[in-house]
Design goal:
The structure is a homotetramer. Chain A has 2 domains: about 10-95 and about 170-225, 2-Layer Sandwich (Gyrase A, domain 2); about 110-165. The first copy, chain A, has helices at about 25-35, 45-55, 75-80, 130-155, 160, 180-190, 195-210, 215-225, and strands at about 10, 15-25, 65-75, 90, 110-115, 120-125, 170-180. The mean pLDDT of chain A is about 90. In chain A, strands 1-2-3-7-4 form a 5-stranded antiparallel sheet. In chain A, strands 5-6 form a two-stranded antiparallel sheet. In chain A, helix 2 (about 45-55) runs parallel beside helix 8 (about 215-225) and helix 7 (about 195-210) crosses helix 8. In chain A, about 45% of the residues lie in helices and about 15% in strands. Chain A is of the alpha+beta class and about 230 residues long. The interface of A and B includes residues 21, 65 and 67 of A.
């Protein structure tokens, strides 16, 4: 059904995830599994045990029967990480087609380079440097957007002008994904090694998944979330 | 939504396709396309033109937004052709787990080998030979099923006993597929070079697709069905 | 390179796996990983540690850089399990196009139904019943093949006549698969719950994989083979 | 085999495509097709006719037997279009892990917005405005890179500092793709509606494909390149 679920926002108040639609639920997972493993009895308790069994033993195909349609607004650098997951279907705003709005992700707090984890952030930058970093960051995106507008004013095409826009620019896309692949996404993107921004989105996606298929998500948390 | 659509049967009266559920429709295709190409105006006529444009130019990703859940009963030789399409999700009855019923596909009419098309059937076998062919065919499947039961009676495991069962045996599966990949399936399986049995299923799938996304299917028929 | 590796046979002496070609090796995995994680130093010892790190943390994409081309001969029931793995590319003999040879898999030993594992075999059938089971089994496949030949003699097309052939019939196919997906196949098909026949093939595939990418396979065995 | 083919550059002299390795050729396509359609005779002329037949009738699976490993250096906006093709395998430089070099794509000539094609560029900007556009563009990327360095100097982590870098920044990745999917990529990315930059890369990829599988590529050009 087309849903009226509230849009869930990330902390900068611009990025969001919205569940547009979904198909199936825990009952569909059970139905698909029972075609393989026999109808058996059908109490709620036995269905839950079957889902637990499937999840524990990584019998993942029944979880492909639950499908989600999400509407996402996220910065380009996060969208880039997101779309490395090739198992979903994407439709994204085109900066060749549409003029981009002046909307950029700005970190609330800046962090220092992590000492051992070469790809991550460590502790927050000291307080006295936070406003300096914010000022430099904001200058960069303001300059970029001004140049973008200046190029458009000169008559330059959108597809060429946008080349100066930074990866903190907000984009939007629709994402169709099934529960199996969503949970795999969450294993990677809820992980402490994932970047803060995409981890926030993963947390929102997890909430939506739990609303649609609570027994499956609980079984996944029991068996895989921590181990991953 | 979970649907109460009638089950559609193939001509032998055993095989069927049932639409269990679906997500999205022509409106969803338009919504996904407009995120890329701008909202523009939104009359029914303009939406239909947009779908026609997308289909004509093979901008296929918006058609991935419509998703179907089918329940299929088909002979193994047809299920084998079906599952070569790797873009859907399958859950099938297991002959390792469940005892197979005495249900086999029997052709209503036998055909001669096609003279030029090495992989196809040609004109029907002459009338006098039809009952001979039917008798031979039925003897084969009767013997096979008797041996299967005999092996089970001896205590042989289901997974070993079933090895004697022919590919005309009926199996069942659930199939999740989006409209883009369903239409690609139909291009190949409605084709005159496809085997009669799977062409029947393709015809039923086409009817369901038309009920869910009539404008998209009509546009596909206009631009691609014949050319394929 | 096109390889002259020996063909490896399963125990019935008919089924086989042959490594036709491969691309990449452990060095390619390292090369792909270093584009993401920096060149760093490059001793053999450090490369091996990097592979171990990637495998342990399920950073699987570098393992997609090693690609195999296999030629497989297997019974249909095993080919059916095999092709449920949708991540490889398959080209299979067509029983619509070619007349099938009189080649079927016959179990050397029959097993009883497993008492608790509903989808598996348990202990061997007692000795006195083995020849009975073998006789029944062989009668079934002999009758089936005779009916197949009789139908062809009547002039029935190959695609219709083959419907009487059992799933123990041998088929052949080419399979292109990368190391990541091959290892996932092995996790499922080396498992004690997999059927004996496909486990034999999995064992042969593992040997070929080890010849091509020994460090990666060893790391996988250390971290995942047992846990799966 | 690991190849020593020359690296092919795009016109800005920074971006490139390099064929790292490949597996298979026209002969492999023929071999895979003949397992389905029978061995038949095997003159060069007949093999070429078979490839033409496969291509004309979109029997695409044998073309999955030829696999390429490319090393690509391209601006982020092009890499984004590239990676929407989900059928290949990617390993990319991480701006979280490594400090980015001061390398950006700068258009040699700027173009005006196309009047009718909303997503494309039209005729070149008039000569008098070219240096103005170039100055604005270069100022934007210089400012962005200066802010990036300034943030790093303040101690900000690489993953946060890089958020100010524009999508014209150069990135590098390895791409594994089979011939079938490469040709599909080329159909979309050689198209006049594709952006100039990615069309240049598509042209280079086409040259490499032709070197590896000349008969297949010629058949594709005959039947599909223009129609696409």
């Amino acid at each position: 059904m087309t849903r009226q679920t509230p849009t869930k926002y990330v902390t900068d108040g611009i990025g969001f995830v919205r569940l547009v639609d979904s198909m199936g639920s825990d009952a569909r997972v059970v139905q698909a599994a029972r075609v393989s493993y026999g109808p058996g009895t059908k109490t709620k308790r036995q269905d839950d045990k079957l889902i637990d069994y499937l999840m524990r033993n990584r019998h993942t195909s029944p979880f492909e029967k639950v499908v989600f349609e999400f509407h996402v607004k996220a910065p380009i650098f996060t969208a880039r990480q997101w779309m490395r997951h090739r198992t979903g279907s994407y439709n994204e705003v085109s900066a060749r087609y549409s003029e981009m709005k002046n909307e950029f992700h700005v970190p609330v707090t800046f962090h220092m380079q992590h000492e051992r984890n070469k790809q991550g952030s460590g502790t927050p930058l000291k307080d006295s440097l936070q406003p300096v970093a914010t000022t430099v960051y904001k200058r960069a995106i303001r300059e970029a957007y001004e140049c973008y507008e200046r190029l458009l004013d000169l008559g330059v095409s959108r597809e060429e002008a946008r080349m100066v826009l930074p990866v903190s620019l907000y984009t939007e896309f629709y994402w169709t994904v099934n529960l199996r692949n969503l949970l795999h996404f969450l294993e990677l993107r809820l992980d402490p090694h994932a970047q803060d921004n995409i981890r926030e989105y993963a947390g929102l996606l997890l909430e939506f998944a739990r609303e649609v298929a609570p027994v499956s998500v609980e079984a996944w948390e029991r068996h895989w979330k921590e181990g991953a």
